Amino acid sequence: MSTLQRINFSPVSDILPIQRRxxxxxxxxxxxxxxxxxxxxGEWFTLNTSYQAIRAAxxxxxxxxxxxxxxxxxxxxxxxxxxVQAMSRNGIPLLYRGDYEFDTRIFDASAAVxxxxxxxxxxQPLKVALISFSGRNFSGLVGHGTPGGGDxxxxxxxxxxxxxSNGGQLRFISGWAS
Length: 178
Description:
By secondary structure, the protein is an all-beta fold. The chain contains one helix and eleven strands, in the order E-E-E-E-E-H-E-E-E-E-E-E.
């Protein structure tokens, strides 16, 4: 389990080769830091049919059963940043393309969602699902099931450092395996 901080998503690798794209929010109020369900850095979003950013796993679902069924992208902006609030209709920054390695607090290492497994080993595939900590729900990382074991959800990255050896943060690299 993780704890929510001011900065929940920080780069380990160089971020210059990453293609960051701004997408308008389907719900612009998510950029307001006083909204109890506001977006936080490291949360995962996808696109709807109107080409707008929506949470990859709806946070109104049931923890342990709600998951992302399509490719997802992490938010790269801290909660309450004025530039994100100002451009919430025009775009929030998502890490859209490129290889990267990040430390994140937006994960649940013990969750086993939709054929997935707890995060227990290095290079374990990761996917996105509804998680809960610090009294609220997020669209965050959980462990993917064994390759070939029936878990068909999109893989968004691979664990490169377990939270137990990384100050409580999960380190992962991006991945396009599915």
